Amino acid sequence: MQYRFSSGRNKLRRRIAEGVPAPIWVRPAIGLVVLLTGVLLAASLCIAGTGAEHPIPSAIQPESTPADAVYHLSFLVVSIDAAVFVVVFALLVYALVRFRQRSGEPEREPPQVYGSTQIELAWIVIPLLLVIILFLATSRVIHAVQDARKPASAVEVTAIGHQYWWEFRYPKYGVVTANELHIPVSTSARTMPTFLQLLSADTDHSFWVPQLAGKTDLIPNRSNEMWIEPHEAGIYLGQCAQYCGTQHAKMLLRVSVDTPEEFSAWISAQAKPVAAETTEAAGKRVFETTACVNCHAIQGTTANGRFGPDLTHLMSRKTIASGAADNTAENLRMWIQNPDAIKPGSLMPAMKMTDPELDALVRYLRTLR
Fold first, then answer.
1. 171-214, pLDDT tens digit by residue?
2. Which among 64, 184, 223, 357 is placed 20 to 30 Å from 83, CA to CA?
3. Dist CA 269 CA 267 (whole Å)
4. Is-same-fold flag (155-271; 281-365)?
5. Tens-place pLDDT, residues 50-86
């Protein structure tokens, strides 16, 4: 077996060295193998990790009304493209087989066709019809998504993109949070879509949660809008889809779709300020006497910064640093002491604190629930 393989390989090398062209089927075969490999790789990436604790966000698993519309449009486009590919590839294979050069036959050309009205009409009318179908289908989805009416039961959220984190404001409830967006699930019995106003505090960003909606940009000095209407409660992951600087890849999104009762309870908890008295007075004093107050806000204290995330209910969040690390005491301490250890290039400065000060501050922040 090894001898046959070596013999075939040497024969191919000898043909190449002698300038003998490869058989006519070699290049199409290589192209087909590359194409199938790419398709299989793309399919594996689309379905990878769907059962894991942190699944890869997939646009082919829509869980929201706008995402459903985009998915069905994409399915139509891919179906038409696949049909065109099959037809063209079949014609190509037919031409290669039917008109191939046979051994023992003189070189000849296949019959040339000129001025065929039927053929010319076919390659003009068919593509034109396909373009019209795609245009009408796309226009319908764009109109349904962008011009949807806002019902009275809708939840309004203002999302502000920062380098490199997300700020979420609920004007109706007076709630401000960061990085983890909480919204209610929408059912046929109780429709509660979420309408987002998208703003940017610095540069271009893009809000994208693949399973809930398409991408929408956040542009400085411009207000954009989008809406999502999730059908299933759960955690949906996304991120900034527009390069916005060094830590663009770690500007992550975490959307928690709650039941109406869970959402109401979360809003009530987030609207409460922190208690004036705390068992960690030393840590609170460290927070209020350092540069922390210049960037962060904690309701009920003198801290009223806007450059960084609101920390009033920091421990109600599962992650810190816009999803770059789990919200644990160890990660919180590391984040304050040396942000570059978690998120290199972030705008959070390293706080020059002694170990006792750092420990006291972490203990205080852990009480902010």
1. 999 999 999 999 999 988 888 999 999 999 999 999 999 999 99
2. 64
3. 5
4. yes
5. 444 446 778 888 999 999 999 999 999 999 999 999 9
Structure tokens at 71: 């998915």
Residues 292, 363, 248, 78, CA torsion sign: negative
Q: How many contiguous H segments (helices) and E segments (strands) does the chain have?
A: 9, 12
Beta carbons of 350 and 339 less than 8 angstroms apart: yes
- Token duo for residue 109: 């050309």
Residue with tokens 């927070």: 287
Q: Which residue has the tokens 């999302």?
A: 159
Alpha-carbon distance 127 to 132, whole Å?
9
* Opening angle at CA 183, ends 180 and 185, nearest 5: 135
3-class secondary structure, 264: helix
**Strand 319-320 with 325-326, pairing:** antiparallel
Residue with tokens 């039917």: 98
Mean pLDDT of 119-136: 92
HSE at residue 56, side-chain half, CA atoms within 13 A, is 9
Name the token pair of 297: 């806000």
DSSP per-residue letters across 275-323: PSS-S-HHHHHHHHTSTHHHH-B-TTSS-B--SS-B-TTGGGSSEETTT
Give the residue carrying structure tokens 């373009």: 131
Residue 272: CB atoms within 10 Å? 13
- On the CB side of 54, CA atoms within 13 Å amount to 11
**Other residues' Cβ atoms within 10 Å of the Cβ of residue 284:** 22
**Contact criterion met (CB below 8 Å) for 194 and 229:** yes
Pairing of strands 194-200, 165-170: unpaired
Q: What is the pTM of this model?
A: 0.79
Select the CATH number that applies to the domain covering 281-365 from these four: 3.40.30.10, 3.40.50.150, 3.40.50.720, 2.60.40.420. Answer: 2.60.40.420
Delimit the domains of the chain by residue range: 1-43, 65-101+114-147, 155-271, 281-365
Residue 369: per-residue pLDDT: 84
CATH fourth-level superfamily of 155-271: Cupredoxins -  blue copper proteins (2.60.40.420)
